[in-house]
Structure prediction request, 264 residues.
Amino acid sequence: MPSGLDDVSMTTTLAPTEFSGTDVSRTEISQNQNPPQKATPANGQATLPDAPTPAGSPSTSGDPNDQSGKQPKRILGIVPNYRAVSANEHLPPLDFKGDLWLATQDTFDYSDFIFVAGLAGVDMAGRSQPAFGHGAEGYGKYYWHVFVDGAIENYMTEAIVPVATKEDPRYYTLGKGGFVKRTGYAVSRLFITRTNSGGSTFNLSEIVGAGAAAGIGNAYYPAESNPWVKTYQRWGTQVGLDGVFNALKEFWPDIDKAVFHGKY
Prediction:
């Protein structure tokens, strides 16, 4: 065949080969790729992807409206409650500065002056100290004696003795159990307290501190009063009042929730 026809023939023959090679290459590429497949259940219906799992919801104990065993800074918004620790709450031990500030808050809070006024009126009505007399002058004597009694007792039981014995003067709320159990616990805290290391020990801060405060009172009470009888009376009164306040602190979160709906 003439050379010109041969060239045309070769061109015609090679062209399909080149296209064929390209098709094979594309086929191989498509076979090597794995397109995403939709999951198909046994019933043959297509399904959507699973929804993300929601984060765990807070537990009931983390509910900010839950007031179980949670102690406020004041009872009824008036009475100082700085010594009370909420149930299941763990706090570091106090140093002497912290103990001293705790006693100062309890002694010079505005509500304490009101409380002292009430106690002074009771003492005057019962004529616990006849030498103080009657009227405004007599009431004034009752008032400042009651105030000084409480101040000395606060500093002895909440600061001076605790720093020497390494005891924690705060009240740790039990917050659970029946009425008898919790009342017994509150009263027992007069005799059992927590150490700075987290253990339990005899409450020297309360018993010795209150006794020392009552003894110091003999220095400013009338000499004609029987010092021993009055000393024991003041000692017993201070310890008894602390026991009443322990019980009030223990049940106050429940009272607040049931009566005042957590307002206080």
The CA atoms of residues 157 and 205 lie 5 Å apart. Helices lie at 3-32, 96-108, 110-125, 135-165, 179-188, 204-216, 227-259. The mean pLDDT is 80. The radius of gyration is 41 Å.
